[in-house]
Design brief:
Helix 2 crosses helix 3. It is built from 4 helices and 4 strands; from the N terminus they run ααβαβββα. The chain is of the alpha+beta class. Helix 3 links the parallel strand 1 and strand 2. Strands 2-1-3-4 form a 4-stranded mixed sheet.
Length: about 230
């Protein structure tokens, strides 16, 4: 082999080595870049997963907090409703006991006549009419009839004392309209403890002075005092 061929062969070997070295460097560069990109991508995935876990945890914690608040509110409302029901039951029982006490006291005819007379007078003073019909239970017709004259005279007396005027009223027992009968466990339905309803102007104006109405009014007015006595801790 001559000198020229040897030189050419050396150049070929040199170029081949250069190309191999360049390829090796390029491969290393590609590997390094791929590793960097993998690390960056892995970090992104880790951060996204971590953020999703944190969001899920926050959402579940909020759900648990909301459920606890709902349960607490439900328990408070249930307790309030139970307390209200208990109080209402006690007031209802108190009203029932009061009715029984009144009914027992008014079995005395003298007391009943005096009571009915006062109820009629009170109604007349609210109406201030010349002609008034008195409604009562059918079982009280005789008793109430005996009270009409006394009530009329008492009404005139009160008007005279309070105003100096003389005012008369004509009372009559309403034979068509009757109040409900006395309450009884054997016969449920509308009932009335007694008392009267006064009507005038062909029944267009009425004053309810039944014992039931008066007791209901007293119970309503006395509720603040009753609550204080029964329910104050």
């Amino acid at each position: 082999m001559d000198a020229s061929s040897k030189e050419t062969q050396a150049q070929i070997v040199q170029m081949t080595q250069f190309i191999l070295n360049e390829a090796k460097d390029k491969a290393e560069e590609i590997d390094t870049k791929a590793l960097q990109e993998f690390s960056i991508e892995k970090l992104k995935i880790v951060n996204m997963t971590k953020e999703k876990i944190q969001q899920d945890y926050a959402r579940k914690a909020k759900q648990i907090e909301t459920q606890a608040a709902i349960a607490r509110s439900t328990a408070i409302n249930r307790s309030r409703l139970e307390k209200i029901k208990t109080r209402q039951d006690m007031l209802t029982q108190l009203a029932a006991d009061s009715k029984d006490t009144l009914a027992a006291q008014l079995r005395d005819e003298a007391k009943m006549k005096s009571f009915i007379t006062k109820l009629i007078v009170q109604g007349l003073l609210m109406l201030l009419e010349d002609q008034v019909e008195v409604r009562c239970r059918a079982s009280d017709d005789a008793l109430v009839s005996q009270c009409l004259d006394a009530a009329s005279k008492e009404y005139t007396k009160v008007i005279q004392q309070e105003t100096g005027a003389t005012r008369m009223v004509r009372l009559s027992l309403d034979q068509k309209v009757k109040l409900a009968p006395a309450p009884t466990s054997a016969k449920p339905g509308p009932s009335c403890l007694g008392g009267v309803v006064l009507a005038c102007q062909n029944g267009s104006i009425t004053i309810d002075n039944t014992i039931d109405s008066r007791l209901g009014l007293v119970m309503e007015q006395a509720k603040p005092v009753i609550r204080q006595l029964l329910f104050t801790k």
